[in-house]
Structures are given as structure tokens and as C-alpha cells.
């Protein structure tokens, strides 16, 4: 049995992760953590997620001892995630990172930690989104500079980062497939007299509202026709189940940085 710990266990994803862990027969919930001072500390992680006790009390992230679990799953915010990584390095545990919104310095710290522990990081753990990335790569290679490419994403009103981590990953895949550098061609906002659109631009449109779980569409707009490839998540269990699959896999790996292509066994080309 792989011993799993969940960071941010009282959050939207944290509660779904508790459920997904309980549904996976090769995993056992060993620990759950929340922000120091959180009202959730001391509450049972299972009771919070499902109404039934899991006999795992949520502890403060300050009291984390990574020798008591094999892998930690983090869906929190960048800074708490980096603290969790430090603890996993100290205790020799693997980590699965679903958190999004890291800056370049933070990403460099994550890369460094992967020299010491197995680290699986993905902006989206749903199998459907990871398959969508493959379809997008194929479409972008085939259509190339004959179309204008726009990435449209929609999420719930509580999301704090934009564009979504998934949209940014989509942008990287599209840029690679068309031989562009995303830093040069990304357009994140348009207002006023913008001038005509440049063919090489990859545009991002962000929608925030209500309880939208997560939707991503790529529009390939040509003359006389347009192609749209969409993924729409309707339940956070799709992310949580994928993250638990990654947790079981990560616990068996040697140190290194991995993503969902590795977990799902997808080819890299
Ligand atoms: N990769 C993927 O498949 C997916 C990624 N995500 C990403 O996951 C992250 C979380 O999303 P979501 O669940 O909606 O957000 P929530 O705000 O609902 O959950 C985050 C949780 O982390 C807690 N937290 C804050 N600080 C700490 C700390 N120091 N130690 C431990 N826990 C802490 C928060 O507590 P408090 O509220 O008290 O601050 C909260 O309970 C986001 O970055 C989101 O983009 C989301 C879905 C899928
Ligand atoms: O914050 C969310 O909810 C989600 N975040 C991830 C992202 O930023 O891509 C994945 C998912 O779409 C839900």
C-alpha cells in the first residue's frame, strides 16, 4: 500500500483528493495538512470530504513529517507547495504537484528538488486533457501558419491565477508544434486600437464565472473554415483520480521530474 498525504485537504481539490484516495485500492490516506491556523486543523479529513470519518485528523503544515508517508499530493498555492517540496526532500517522500501559477524562480526551485525526489507535476491531471494536448499538437503541425490560433479557457469565480496552468501548457504545445517561442508570440489581452492580428500570435482569452469546473478550447481560425478542439471538465474527480494514479506511480520512481505523459505512458513525439 502506498501511503499518501494530501496538502490543502480542506480545499476544493483537497476534499476531492481525499475521496479519490479512498477509492483507489492501492493507496491509503496516511496524513492530511492545511494552512497553519486554519479552522480545518483537527477535523477528520474524511468527514470533511464525505461526512464519514477516515480516522485521519488534518494537521498543520508546520507539523509535517514526510517520513510518515510515501508521497504527498499538493493542490494549494505556489508558496505552500514549495514548503511541502522542502519537507518531502527532507523526508525522502515523492510529490505530486497540481498547483498552478508558479513564476520562473519558483519553477527553477521545483526543478532543483527533482534531483533529490520523484516529482510529478502537471497543470491538469485529467486523462482527457492530456489526450487533448496530443490532438492539439497534431492539428497545429498540420495547420501551421494557415490559421490564427486562440486559446479560450473558462473557470469558476474563485480561481486566482490566469491564464490557467492548462491554457499555458496548451500554449507551449502549440508554440512548439508551430516552431514559435511562446514568450514572443503570446497575446494575453487586447484593448483599444490593437492593429490587425499577426498570424504568428497565439491569443489567450480568460473567462471567470460561477462554478465552471474547467473548460479549454483551441480555435484554429482559417479563411472559410475554423476548427475547434475543446475539453470540458464537469467534475473535479477527473483531476483527483488522475492525481491519485500519479501518486501511486510516483512512489515507485527514482528521483526526477515527471509529467502525466510519463504516468499515462504516452509517447513524447
Ligand atoms: N493540476 C490539476 O489537475 C488541477 C489543478 N488545480 C490547481 O490546484 C490549486 C488549488 O485549487 P483549489 O482546490 O480550487 O483551491 P482552494 O483554495 O479551494 O484550495 C487550496 C487549499 O490550500 C490551502 N492552503 C493554503 N495555504 C496552505 C499551507 N501553507 N499549507 C497547506 N494548505 C494550505 C487553502 O487553505 P485556506 O483556504 O485556508 O487558505 C485551501 O484549503 C490551484 O493552483 C489550481 O489551479 C485545480 C484543479 C485541477
Ligand atoms: O483552478 C482550477 O480549478 C483548475 N486549475 C487548473 C489549471 O489552472 O489549469 C486545471 C483545471 O482546469 C482546474
From TrEMBL:
Domain Dihydrodipicolinate reductase C-terminal: 128-264
Pathway: Amino-acid biosynthesis; L-lysine biosynthesis via DAP pathway; (S)-tetrahydrodipicolinate from L-aspartate: step 4/4
Residue sites binding (S)-2,3,4,5-tetrahydrodipicolinate per the record: 156, 165-166
Compartmental location: Cytoplasm
EC number of the protein: 1.17.1.8
Protein's UniProt keywords contain Oxidoreductase: yes
Alphabetical list of CDD domains matching this protein: DHDPR_N (cd02274)
UniProt superkingdom: Bacteria
Main location: cytoplasm
Domain Dihydrodipicolinate reductase N-terminal: 3-125
Binding residue positions for NAD(+): 8-13, 34, 98-100, 122-125
Active site (UniProt): 155 (proton donor/acceptor), 159 (proton donor)
Reactions performed catalytically: (S)-2,3,4,5-tetrahydrodipicolinate + NAD(+) + H2O = (2S,4S)-4-hydroxy-2,3,4,5-tetrahydrodipicolinate + NADH + H(+); (S)-2,3,4,5-tetrahydrodipicolinate + NADP(+) + H2O = (2S,4S)-4-hydroxy-2,3,4,5-tetrahydrodipicolinate + NADPH + H(+)
UniProt keyword terms in alphabetical order: Amino-acid biosynthesis, Cytoplasm, Diaminopimelate biosynthesis, Lysine biosynthesis, NAD, NADP, Oxidoreductase
PROSITE patterns referenced in this protein's UniProt entry, alphabetically: DAPB
Subunit text: Homotetramer.
Cited function: Catalyzes the conversion of 4-hydroxy-tetrahydrodipicolinate (HTPA) to tetrahydrodipicolinate.
Record family assignment: Belongs to the DapB family.
Protein name: 4-hydroxy-tetrahydrodipicolinate reductase
Organism: Salinisphaera dokdonensis CL-ES53
Amino acid at each position: 500500500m502506498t501511503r499518501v498525504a494530501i496538502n490543502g485537504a480542506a480545499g476544493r481539490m483537497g476534499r476531492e483528493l481525499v475521496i479519490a484516495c479512498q477509492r483507489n485500492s492501492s493507496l491509503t490516506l496516511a496524513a492530511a495538512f492545511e494552512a497553519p491556523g486554519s479552522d480545518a486543523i483537527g477535523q477528520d479529513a474524511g468527514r470533511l470530504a464525505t461526512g464519514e470519518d477516515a480516522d485521519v485528523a488534518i494537521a498543520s503544515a508546520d507539523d509535517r513529517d514526510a517520513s510518515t508517508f510515501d508521497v504527498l499530493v499538493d493542490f494549494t498555492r505556489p508558496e505552500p507547495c514549495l514548503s511541502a517540496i522542502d519537507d518531502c526532500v527532507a523526508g525522502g517522500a515523492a510529490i505530486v504537484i497540481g498547483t498552478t501559477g508558479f513564476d520562473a524562480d519558483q519553477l527553477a526551485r521545483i526543478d532543483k528538488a527533482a534531483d533529490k525526489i520523484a516529482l510529478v507535476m502537471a497543470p491538469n491531471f485529467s486523462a482527457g486533457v492530456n489526450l487533448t494536448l496530443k490532438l492539439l499538437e497534431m492539428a497545429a503541425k498540420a495547420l501551421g501558419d494557415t490559421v490564427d490560433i486562440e486559446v479560450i479557457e473558462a473557470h469558476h469565480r474563485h480561481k486566482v491565477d490566469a491564464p490557467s496552468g492548462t491554457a499555458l501548457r496548451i500554449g507551449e504545445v502549440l508554440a512548439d508544434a508551430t516552431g514559435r517561442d511562446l514568450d514572443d508570440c503570446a497575446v494575453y489581452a487586447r484593448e483599444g486600437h490593437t492593429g490587425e492580428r499577426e498570424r504568428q500570435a497565439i491569443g489567450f482569452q480568460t473567462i471567470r464565472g460561477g462554478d465552471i469546473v474547467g473548460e479549454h478550447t483551441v480555435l484554429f481560425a482559417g479563411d472559410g473554415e475554423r476548427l475547434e478542439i475543446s475539453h470540458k471538465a464537469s467534475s473535479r474527480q477527473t483531476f483527483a483520480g488522475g492525481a491519485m494514479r500519479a501518486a501511486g506511480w510516483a512512489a515507485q520512481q527514482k528521483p526526477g521530474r515527471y509529467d502525466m505523459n510519463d504516468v499515462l505512458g504516452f509517447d513524447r513525439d
